[in-house]
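Why do we care about 3D structure at all? Because function follows from shape, and shape follows, mostly, from sequence. That is the central idea of this module. The next example makes it concrete: a single protein chain, its amino acid sequence, and then its structure expressed as tokens.
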Amino acid sequence: MTVWAIIPVKPLGRAKSRLASVLAAEERQALAEALLRHVVKTVKAVPGVAGVLVISRDPRALALARDLGANTVQESGTPELNNALMRATQVITAWRGRAVLILPADLPLINGEDVVEILKLGEDEGTVVLATDRNQDGTNALFSRPPGLIPYAFGQDSFLRHLSLAKDAGAEVKVYSSERIKLDIDVPADLELLRQINPHFELPVNFSAQS
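And the structure:
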């Protein structure tokens, strides 16, 4: 069955504002671009994924995604993540996609094994697979078969909300746990942890957790 990945991307020029104490604006944008490249390339390399759809208001992010071979949708109207994701899901449904995997664009440690395992957990119709972050608060992966099985509730406490929505929908709910997928980049401590775990990931050279 056809699986598509959806990756929402905030405007790169305003990305990672909570890192302003340790990174200049240009460095934050460079970091956001590096993270987006990593996630798109990782997902595209998985044979079970038919394609990647990046949705954003930012023409630069959309151009970067197209250069990587991803499909794109220009977000319009009032910015709101969950509405944008629902529109992207409707596009996938129109393309005869049978399942969607939603991933944030800032997962520096995600690899093909993570994507494969999530797809395996979601093989059955009527399944929702969720993965949370290090704080067990946010949702760092949401797989739905079929697309749109549950409404999206990204934001604070989204993991518990998505669990509840999936149960209310009568879905078979599975949780994927991986230390790699738990790490997203929001605050300086996340950058420091990334540097400790994977010193080869390309970080802005001036980063210092002590800044």
